[in-house]
């Protein structure tokens, strides 16, 4: 009896979330792909052919013949889309490097802090994450505007003579991404550094290794799993970011998340936006699998 | 014990200044008399007053709170189940796909998740509105709950579960009476994480919402596009205040619980 109960319990615990994710996460991707092969139509929903259960198998087969790759051909022919993909990858890569350069010293400093202080510091890194992402991006508009607080400050202390134009440029996007994603970089690096055995550094220094060499030869290699996890957590979502380029980047900046949004909401072209999403997903599959392997390895170690 | 060097202190302090300064400025300027958000003209609470007369914002806030409470609660149940499945059952058919589906939403760009869910709802003929936003929020936030709960389950001493089972407790009873009380703080913080993710989400909600189900971030976003106003600063300050109170209460509760547990343990050892 207990054995039967155990079997039912374990089955349910697996099947319910499994089925949920299959239905609401995996199947939608197939629908996206399918609609990316349709044509735009002035109808509700705005694409055709539309599959219906009532068609039966023969109807389904006839409609499969109407699918085509025109939307993908269209994406490769229009330089706008290619440029948007390339500039998204570029912006995400630059932002990830900047986040690493800024985040690593913070994580390192936290890991070196007195033990009693560390939980508070950790809490302070997590806390901004609990406030709205939209609000945090919005806050930067008032700071970066030509007549904004940063320019007022810099003009006031006399470093610059005329206001810096930051908002509506790529720099505003870099600042926005670094700011919003910084905790995602700091936390994994901190947890890698905190677990580190400190006697290794002492051993290196006892053997005559200068502190900076000891850092590059001992500390940094040991923190690489944290660095990789942090970079993935920043890079992947940043490629498809919408809110930051939209609010801080202005109309000139080209990022694929924004292109997709406009294609969908302004042009109401569902098949093309589905094709844009499909290609974005294909680009991101490699880093996502990489991230999952790292995650699975961490899980294995924790076991 | 090495000292906390000046360089390390400087990088931590500068890092925190960078993280907190924009939020502090936003809060300060919500009390500004002037309509300009960048020029200080004296203290005033008039933007809060005008906020409470803005019926559109208040309606949106209600929708958001209802969606978030419902979505976070369901996501916590589903996410905890998924965490149990991943930590307790290392071998079952399709485990690789399962763990892939749990980790992928953590990094998936929101525009993709939003679009794909919308197309699903259209394909099955589900009218967009309150329920579609809620379902979408459950789906992406449950994976965050899973990660939080999973890390707690991995450091869990399984022998006490085994002891309960050996003494004849059913798996369900063992879970509710032994496992759940131990992982409760992680489940609670998973719930809070899911709640904030849902309260915060703009992109997925915009794709999956329909008429009559405008959420607060959607409302804020559409106003921000028209220009920065102190009224939005005031709305943001209230949200930040609510979150800060929530986090404070939660941390006090966990601290108290920990102190209590330490005391219990000491009492148990003393009594032996």
TrEMBL record, chain A:
<keyword id="KW-1003">Cell membrane</keyword>
<comment type="similarity">
    <text>Belongs to the binding-protein-dependent transport system permease family. CysTW subfamily.</text>
</comment>
<keyword id="KW-0813">Transport</keyword>
<feature type="transmembrane region" description="Helical">
    <location>
        <begin position="121"/>
        <end position="143"/>
    </location>
</feature>
<protein>
    <submittedName>
        <fullName>ABC transporter permease subunit</fullName>
    </submittedName>
</protein>
<feature type="transmembrane region" description="Helical">
    <location>
        <begin position="171"/>
        <end position="193"/>
    </location>
</feature>
<dbReference type="InterPro" id="IPR035906">
    <property type="entry name" value="MetI-like_sf"/>
</dbReference>
<keyword id="KW-1133">Transmembrane helix</keyword>
<feature type="transmembrane region" description="Helical">
    <location>
        <begin position="270"/>
        <end position="291"/>
    </location>
</feature>
<feature type="transmembrane region" description="Helical">
    <location>
        <begin position="214"/>
        <end position="239"/>
    </location>
</feature>
<keyword id="KW-0472">Membrane</keyword>
<feature type="domain" description="ABC transmembrane type-1">
    <location>
        <begin position="85"/>
        <end position="291"/>
    </location>
</feature>
<feature type="transmembrane region" description="Helical">
    <location>
        <begin position="12"/>
        <end position="37"/>
    </location>
</feature>
<dbReference type="InterPro" id="IPR000515">
    <property type="entry name" value="MetI-like"/>
</dbReference>
<keyword id="KW-0812">Transmembrane</keyword>
<feature type="transmembrane region" description="Helical">
    <location>
        <begin position="89"/>
        <end position="109"/>
    </location>
</feature>
<dbReference type="Pfam" id="PF00528">
    <property type="entry name" value="BPD_transp_1"/>
</dbReference>
From TrEMBL, chain B:
<feature type="transmembrane region" description="Helical">
    <location>
        <begin position="60"/>
        <end position="84"/>
    </location>
</feature>
<protein>
    <submittedName>
        <fullName>ABC transporter permease subunit</fullName>
    </submittedName>
</protein>
<keyword id="KW-0812">Transmembrane</keyword>
<dbReference type="InterPro" id="IPR035906">
    <property type="entry name" value="MetI-like_sf"/>
</dbReference>
<dbReference type="InterPro" id="IPR000515">
    <property type="entry name" value="MetI-like"/>
</dbReference>
<feature type="transmembrane region" description="Helical">
    <location>
        <begin position="232"/>
        <end position="253"/>
    </location>
</feature>
<comment type="similarity">
    <text>Belongs to the binding-protein-dependent transport system permease family. CysTW subfamily.</text>
</comment>
<keyword id="KW-1003">Cell membrane</keyword>
<feature type="transmembrane region" description="Helical">
    <location>
        <begin position="130"/>
        <end position="154"/>
    </location>
</feature>
<keyword id="KW-0472">Membrane</keyword>
<feature type="domain" description="ABC transmembrane type-1">
    <location>
        <begin position="61"/>
        <end position="251"/>
    </location>
</feature>
<keyword id="KW-1133">Transmembrane helix</keyword>
<feature type="transmembrane region" description="Helical">
    <location>
        <begin position="7"/>
        <end position="31"/>
    </location>
</feature>
<dbReference type="InterPro" id="IPR051789">
    <property type="entry name" value="Bact_Polyamine_Transport"/>
</dbReference>
<dbReference type="Pfam" id="PF00528">
    <property type="entry name" value="BPD_transp_1"/>
</dbReference>
<keyword id="KW-0813">Transport</keyword>
<feature type="transmembrane region" description="Helical">
    <location>
        <begin position="96"/>
        <end position="124"/>
    </location>
</feature>
<feature type="transmembrane region" description="Helical">
    <location>
        <begin position="175"/>
        <end position="194"/>
    </location>
</feature>
């Amino acid at each position: 009896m207990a054995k039967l109960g155990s079997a039912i319990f374990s089955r349910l615990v697996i099947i319910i979330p499994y089925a949920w994710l299959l239905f609401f996460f995996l199947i939608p991707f197939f629908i996206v792909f399918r609609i990316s092969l349709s044509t735009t139509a002035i109808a509700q929903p705005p694409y055709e052919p539309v599959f219906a259960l009532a068609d039966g198998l023969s109807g389904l087969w006839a409609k499969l013949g109407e699918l085509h790759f025109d939307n993908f051909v269209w994406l490769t022919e229009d330089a706008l889309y290619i440029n948007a993909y390339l500039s998204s990858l570029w912006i995400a890569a630059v932002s990830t490097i900047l986040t690493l350069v800024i985040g690593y010293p913070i994580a390192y400093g936290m890991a070196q802090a007195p033990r009693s202080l560390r939980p508070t510091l950790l809490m302070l890194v997590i806390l901004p994450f609990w406030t709205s992402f939209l609000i945090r991006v919005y806050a930067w508009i008032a700071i970066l505007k030509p007549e904004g607080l940063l320019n007022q400050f810099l003009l006031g202390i006399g470093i610059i003579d005329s206001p810096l134009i930051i908002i509506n440029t790529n720099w505003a996007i870099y600042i926005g991404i670094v700011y919003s994603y910084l905790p995602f970089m700091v936390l994994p690096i901190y947890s890698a550094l905190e677990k580190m055995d400190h006697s290794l550094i002492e051993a290196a220094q006892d053997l005559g290794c200068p502190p900076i060499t000891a850092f590059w030869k001992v500390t940094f290699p040991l923190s690489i799993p944290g660095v990789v996890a942090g970079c993935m957590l920043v890079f992947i979502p940043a490629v498809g970011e919408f809110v930051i380029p939209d609010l801080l980047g202005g109309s000139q900046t080209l990022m694929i998340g924004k292109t997709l949004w406009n294609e969908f909401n302004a042009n109401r072209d569902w098949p093309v936006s589905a094709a844009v999403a499909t290609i974005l997903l294909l680009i991101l599959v490699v880093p996502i699998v990489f991230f999952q392997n790292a995650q699975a390895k961490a899980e294995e170690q924790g076991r | 014990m090495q000292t906390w060097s000046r360089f390390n202190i400087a990088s931590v302090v500068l890092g925190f200044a960078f993280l907190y300064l924009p939020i502090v400025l936003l809060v300060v300027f919500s009390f500004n008399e002037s309509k300009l958000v960048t020029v200080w003209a004296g203290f005033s609470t008039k933007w809060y007053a005008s906020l409470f007369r803005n019926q559109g914002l208040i309606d949106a806030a209600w929708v958001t709170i209802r969606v978030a409470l419902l979505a976070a609660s369901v996501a916590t149940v589903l996410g905890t189940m998924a965490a149990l499945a991943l930590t307790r059952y290392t071998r079952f058919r399709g485990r690789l796909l399962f763990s892939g589906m749990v980790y992928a939403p953590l990094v998936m760009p929101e525009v993709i998740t939003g679009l794909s869910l919308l197309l699903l709802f259209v394909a099955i003929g589900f009218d967009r509105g309150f329920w579609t936003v809620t379902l979408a929020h459950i789906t992406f936030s449950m994976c965050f709950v899973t990660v939080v709960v999973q890390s707690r389950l991995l450091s869990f001493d399984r022998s006490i579960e085994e002891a309960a089972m050996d003494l004849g407790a059913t798996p369900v009873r063992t879970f509710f009476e032994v496992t759940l009380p131990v992982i409760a703080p992680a489940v609670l913080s998973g719930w809070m994480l899911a709640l904030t993710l849902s309260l915060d989400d703009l992109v997925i909600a915009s794709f999956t919402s329909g008429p009559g189900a405008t959420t607060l971030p959607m409302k804020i976003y559409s106003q921000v596009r028209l220009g920065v106003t102190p009224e939005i600063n005031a709305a943001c300050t209230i949200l930040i205040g609510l979150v800060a109170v929530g986090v404070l209460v939660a941390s006090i509760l966990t601290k108290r619980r920990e102190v209590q547990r330490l005391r219990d343990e000491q009492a148990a050892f003393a009594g032996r």
